[in-house]
What we know:
11% strand; alpha+beta; 437 residues; elongated; two-stranded antiparallel ribbon
Amino acid sequence: MxxxxxxxxxxxxxxxxxxxxxxxxxxxxxxxxxKHQSATSISSRKKAITDPDRIKSDLVKxxxxxxxxxxxxxxxxxxxxxxxNPNVSYDTPHGIYGYPLTRENAQSLISHGQPTQAQFATDxxxxxxxxxxxxxxxxxxxxxxxxSISGGDSHIVIQKDGKNNxxxxxxxxxxTEIFSKFLFICAHKFKPEEIRKxxxxxxxxxxxxxxxxxxxxxxxxYLEMIEAFGWALTQEExxxxxxxxxxxxxxxxxxxxxxxxxxxNDKVNLNPExxxxxxxxxxxxxxxxxxxxxxxxxxxxxxxxxSVIIKDxxxxxxxxxxxxxxxxxxxxxxxxxxxxxxxxxxxxxHITEIIDFNNENSSGYYFSLYLNLAGIKxxxxxxxxxxxxxxxxxxxxxxxxxxxDNSIVHVGTYLNIFKDLYNPQAAMEILDFLKxx
Length: 437
């Protein structure tokens, strides 16, 4: 499927490396993953509207192909603003999620308490209505407001069959951008001395010891890998081998593959030890060459091994998706270049979370960050279950740009007067009638 792109990796590798952008600064990386460092696409607070007639009127008036509804509970004493909840982290990108607010979905909410079949968060106290720009629409007999068909370059719109507006020609350059920044972040975030100190102070009698040991086993292995490299380079038989040659011997396809489960939202789980070895290489290379930053080591590594690893990860994803289909798991009907990039990014975000010793539950944050590096800040799924198997229809917005982002517009905040209306049988009847499932 990607044979031509694979050839481009080898033939134009230096161009792809140059497109990977500027080296991230240490300060930028140190702040990554912390709770206060979340997607900043919008932070808009409006007074909550509580009048039932006004609420129903606004729902109908604003419904359309570019309109979405997100349900929220307060996370402090104030009415929640439309922003990324800093206290939430899932295995999906960290951002603002919403259900499509078409005319039919608005009527379903008013009548039965749910805009779609999905149940998640529809019993929360408030909801926001927001609109996304750059939505290309077409006329529809089904909905007077029209139907969304695609977005701009930064807005990926996935149709029910999985097809979307992401350009296949961008896949390799985007994957290179993401993988290069992934290595920069992991190299900076990996703190061998902190790991040594944490485990050195861990006592088996401590009630948190077993939890600590389980959570950090893989980090201990990272440390062992660094020490192993130091030992290997002092051995007579290895003295004439470059670090590049050493790492070629240890990084093979079999060690890359992790376990994939039908019960996991992840389409592929990569082996953290594999990437721990890469981080070890970057640290050792930098130290032995008296470099102040990791950029030279990463560029050397990418030149020698980067294209092969990206190709191998794509192959792992393809194999994993085939296995999941054989197990009757929920996967998109058509696997496109965007799906390859999305699952590629998802797998790397989990590795980053493991390496980021000081910020637990940060995979969703890194998932969004890496997609943003590829220029993506909005995803609208029209029923393919690409973002999450249990939420086939949804939209999410995430941006790490400073200042406001005009791709999302906050229409208003409303008291959820419909939260007690939900009745599963009644909801299924109306959804059946509207043929939305």
